[in-house]
Amino acid sequence: MAITSAICTSFKQQLLVGTHNFTNGGNSFKLALYTSSATLGAGSTVFVTTGQASGTNYTTGGSALTNVTPFATGTTGVCDFNDLTFSNATITARGCLIYNDTQGDKAVAAVDFGGDKTSTAGDFTVVFPSPTATGAIIRLA
Hints:
Helix content: under 10%
Order of helices and strands: EHEEEEEEE
């Protein structure tokens, strides 16, 4: 069992057939937290509860991502999101899955945090990298 950072292969194919709509007012995307017992990566196809984190002020399925902003930077398409905070949470997570809540919970990207991250009665914040051609969490070169 492991979490490997990757854009999900099924997501790449689904982009080609127009499954996902990242425009403002389009589809709703969520982020769910997972423990080290989860298996997530390029082969993930949908949101699953197996290995999902649990704790105070964390709801199964995670939370909605806001300010979903796709744009081009040079020759690379990227998507940015606002950082996501689970307030006053007691939780431990090793990674997360971004998924399309509108389109049958289809997986978009798996992210390995590089180690367990913990909050105890405090904010658990997922900070997204700068939306650059080399740093954005979702980027198509």
